[in-house]
Design brief:
By secondary structure, the chain is of the alpha+beta class. The protein is built from three helices and seven strands. It has a domain of 107 residues: Roll (SH3 type barrels), CATH 2.30.30. Helix content is 21%, strand content 27%.
Length: 161
């Protein structure tokens, strides 16, 4: 089977991370309706994760936090969430980028998402496109193209005058 140039798995995971973002934005604005509560497992070593040093030492690879009773000042933006949580009765502000999330679960709704692909944190470079000057004929554009190259057809010649 031929490999697809379209990375459907990565696209689906990105769409599901958008679901997580939208749910957390709703939580930040409307509060937590019963029976919902959220377990969020994330990679602690990912870029952008902000944790107190002692928590990063205790959880060097991943950590799970619960948003149910004791959380404050939840803020959600396009890149991730920031929230104040209590660890050993001491409040700490943490930051979790969405790309660092491995599991998002809402046991109250019997709903969960697991992200299995390693995130692409740096966007892929886009191929450089050379603009073609307007008004050149298709024959002129074909010069230097290998056989089987695409032909650009101007739709103006088909329009009624």
């Amino acid at each position: 089977m031929a490999r697809s140039a379209i990375d459907y798995g990565r696209m689906v995971e990105q769409a599901l991370r958008t679901v997580v973002r939208d749910v957390l934005r709703r939580l930040a604005t409307e509060g937590l309706p019963p029976p919902h509560h959220f377990y969020i497992t994330f990679r602690t070593s990912d870029p952008g994760v902000e944790l107190p040093d002692y928590l990063r030492e205790r959880y060097p690879t991943e950590m799970t936090v619960v948003l149910q009773y004791q959380y404050w000042d939840l803020e959600v933006d396009d890149e991730g969430l920031s929230v104040t949580l209590s660890f050993n009765d001491v409040p700490h502000r943490i930051r979790i980028p969405f790309h660092a999330i491995k599991v998002f679960a809402d046991p109250g709704a019997e709903f969960g998402l697991q992200f299995t692909l390693e995130p692409e944190i740096v966007p892929l470079a886009q191929p450089e496109r050379k603009p073609q000057p307007a008004g050149r004929k298709a024959e002129e554009r074909r010069e230097g193209q290998p056989e089987g190259g695409a032909e650009i057809v101007a739709l103006d010649r088909f329009r009624k005058k």
